TrEMBL record:
PANTHER family: UDP-ARABINOSE 4-EPIMERASE 1, UDP-GLUCOSE 4-EPIMERASE. Pathway: Carbohydrate metabolism; galactose metabolism. InterPro entries: Epimerase_deHydtase, NAD(P)-bd_dom_sf, UDP_G4E. This is UDP-glucose 4-epimerase. One of its GO terms (molecular function) is UDP-glucose 4-epimerase activity. Its cofactor is NAD(+). It comes from Sphingomonas japonica. Belongs to the NAD(P)-dependent epimerase/dehydratase family. It catalyses: UDP-alpha-D-glucose = UDP-alpha-D-galactose. Keywords: Carbohydrate metabolism, Isomerase, NAD.
Length: 331
């Protein structure tokens, strides 16, 4: 029996398409709102209903909420390229902040009771120390992080004023693909390390640039907390159950494993998976890259019954590689 209907924005994108799978598998009915600007209609599981619309299209969004009796929103839609947010900040304040405002307003107008928001570790900027806790200072160093922090602030104010609660999940570095091969990261021009590395391993690019080898880390390369996208999707389903069970409480939670890997450790893992050595080219640092970004995940482990199932760099790489091969076969 269905648990009820939820609306997933950005459900045709990388993380959203995995959340659609997790929500459907958990017994929710799902309606996706996505304008396919970076997503793909084929990435939406056919059990879900796809409404091709911008989240700022109030008529389409409210129509979907009312028609399906939506009780909760999972909000993944947004613009996600950090350097682009620096060169075109207004795009990010439009698509991440203003568009989120419209969506939240639609949720309130349609008496949707629960809201889950894709926030980011980029809200912390360069942390004073790692692992970083949720109450650490938030000083984003790019418009992307600020556009998300502003949406967190809106949600806090709206939840205080209206009968809606929320979970803001601050994702660390999302990677991997559905272990059953149903979805994965498919957008061209990827910049994320594991995606770039599996593209190199499958011959789509010739080498990997290593951005910086003089960081204050054991091997000098940047350290990040990589979380498997399917574990992250499961965290959303658990967060939804919590919001439904305790409607007066909202939550802001880091979503990471609490363990970091360096760029070279990631590339070694990809080499292990293929028995081929990817060419590494040491480059200068990328602007604004912190030495290390690792989640303190005590809060999410305490709040949710969620327990990571794929906290293993080799498993993340294996799933990312399998998806990259699927994409290559499709051409
Ligand atoms: N990938 C990461 O490592 C990461 C880390 C932290 C946070 N996030 C957040 O997670 C969310 C999903 O990211 P992703 O990596 O899956 O990106 P993605 O680009 O694959 O997915 C975004 C989806 O939203 C859709 N979309 C964008 N703007 C829209 C709009 N105005 N109306 C309707 N649909 C719209 C796109 O078509 C796409 O399907 C984003 O909000 C992102 O900021 C991602
Ligand atoms: O070709 C590459 C790509 C990345 N890196 C390095 O690999 C690490 C990870 O980089 P990347 O995969 O680009 O992720 P981040 O820059 O850490 O940011 C991601 O993770 C953040 C949360 O931590 C999200 O908010 C952002 O959306 C998302 O881009 C960093 O040290 C990079 O300098 C390289 O050396 N070579």
């Amino acid at each position: 029996m269905s648990k009820g209907s939820i609306l997933i924005t950005g459900g045709a994108g990388y993380i959203g398409s995995h959340a659609v799978l997790a929500a459907l598998d958990a017994g929710w009915d799902v309606v996706v709102v996505d304008n396919l600007v970076t997503g793909f209609d084929w990435a939406v599981d056919p059990r879900a209903t796809l409404v091709r619309a911008n989240i700022e299209d109030d008529a389409a969004v409210r129509g979907a909420m009312r028609e399906h009796g939506v009780i909760a929103v999972m909000h993944f839609a947004g613009s996600v390229v950090v350097p682009e947010s620096v060169s075109d900040p207004l795009k990010y304040y439009r698509n991440n902040t203003t568009a989120s405002r419209s969506l939240i307003e639609s949720a309130v107008a349609c008496e949707v009771r629960h809201f889950i928001f894709s926030s980011t570790a980029a809200t912390y900027g360069i942390p004073d120390s790692v692992p970083v806790r949720e109450d650490a200072p938030k000083h984003p160093i790019n418009p992307y992080g600020m556009s998300k922090l502003m949406t967190e602030a809106m949600l806090a104010d709206v939840a205080a004023a209206h009968p809606i609660n929320y979970a803001a999940l601050r994702y660390f570095n999302v990677a991997g693909a559905d272990p059953e091969g149903r979805s994965g990261q498919s957008t061209a021009g990827a910049t994320h390390l594991i995606k770039v590395a599996v593209e190199a391993a499958t011959g789509k690019r010739g080498h990997v640039d290593v951005f910086g080898s003089d960081f204050a880390t054991p091997d000098g390369t940047g350290v990040r907390d990589y979380i498997h996208v399917s574990d992250l999707a499961d965290a959303h389903v658990h967060a939804l159950d919590l919001l439904v069970a305790e409607p007066a409480k909202s939550h802001t939670l880091n979503a990471g494993y609490g363990r970091g890997y360096s760029v070279l450790e990631v590339l070694d893992a990809v080499d292990r998976a293929t028995n081929v050595t990817i060419e590494r080219r040491l480059q200068g640092r990328r602007a604004g890259d912190p030495d290390a970004l690792i989640a303190d995940n005590a809060a999410i482990l305490a709040a949710l019954p969620w327990r990571p199932q794929r906290d293993d760099l080799d498993a993340i790489v294996a799933d990312a590689l399998a998806w990259e091969r699927t994409l290559a076969e499709r051409g």
